[in-house]
Amino acid sequence: QVQLQQSGPGLVKPSQTLSLTCTISGDSVSSNNAAWNWIRQSPSRGLEWLGRTYYRSKWYNDYAVSVKSRITINADPSKNQLSLQVNSVTPEDTAVYYCARDGWLGWLGPWGQGTLVTVSS
Amino acid sequence: EIVLTQSPGTLSLSPGERATLSCRASQSVSSRYLVWYQQKPGQAPRLLIYGASSRATGIPDRFSGSGSGTDFTLTISRLEPEDFAVYYCQQYGSSLFTFGPGTKVDIK
After folding, report:
1. 3-state DSSP call for residue B33?
2. Would the CB atoms of A107 and B95 count as touching at under 8 Å?
């Protein structure tokens, strides 16, 4: 079955870049039947979808308006991974970050295990 | 962007009781793209209901979903101890996902 394993630092300094990776097994990041998403969760903002990447002869991205100017989601087919970068982070970006698959059915799953990222000096 | 509102914020019930959770959208949502998740502490959300009323694989039949347009409901017919958790609705549309703020079902 499809499994997502997240990795990345749990502590990032303000104004720096948050970087996370999600390694996919049981499916391909280049699949024509899936898109690969990042979501975060914090007490103040709840569950917040950040964006996704998908391949349809070329790579496409969709981003949430609230973070569009600061985030980049990329895929690395050679490693079957997707990545998230959030620039110029502030304490407001402190959250548990998840990666998740969507099969174009309107729901997200499976999810990665989650990574708590704290933005603090 | 469609905003989802869930009520109540917290529902305090006893095992065996019926739970009725509401999700209201700021504008009409396609039933095809309205889903419900369950989340327990330290875990990722788990899909319960998709397409407003279809149970995901392995979900017990005590969970049911209904609704259309802007008003949707998740019902748990008889609460089991493992059902005490937070429940989120989510909609998909215009190439983005939005979530409700959640309803916590806790033990009375």
Report:
1. helix
2. no
Point out the residue among B50, B98, B101 whose CB comes nearest to the CB of A107.
B50
Q: Which two tokens stand for residue A86?
A: 């959030």
Q: Which residues of A touch B96 (CB under 8 A)?
A: 49, 62, 64
C-beta atoms of B99 and A47 within 8 A: yes
CA distance B62 to A96: 30
Task: Calculate the CA dihedral of residues B8, B13, B18, B23 and round it to 10 degrees.
Answer: 10
Determine contact: A43 vs chain B, CB below 8 A: no
Alpha-carbon distance values, B84 to A1, B73, B78 (Å)? 27, 17, 11
Write out pLDDT tens, residues A22-59.
999 999 999 999 999 999 999 999 999 999 999 999 99
**How far is the alpha carbon of A104 from chain B, nearest alpha carbon, in Å?**
10
Q: What is the pLDDT along chain B (108 residues), one digit of tens a residue?
A: 899 999 999 999 999 999 999 999 999 999 999 999 999 999 999 999 999 999 999 999 999 999 999 999 999 999 999 999 999 999 998 879 999 999 999 999
Query: How many pairs of residues across A and B have Cβ atoms under 8 Å apart?
Result: 50
Tell me which DSSP letter residue B82 carries: G
**What pLDDT digit, counting tens, does each position of A70-83 carry?**
999 999 999 999 99
Closest by CA to A15, choosing from A88, A119, A117, A91, is A88
Q: Which helix (H) or strand (E) holds B61?
A: none
CB contact under 8 A, A111 and B44: yes
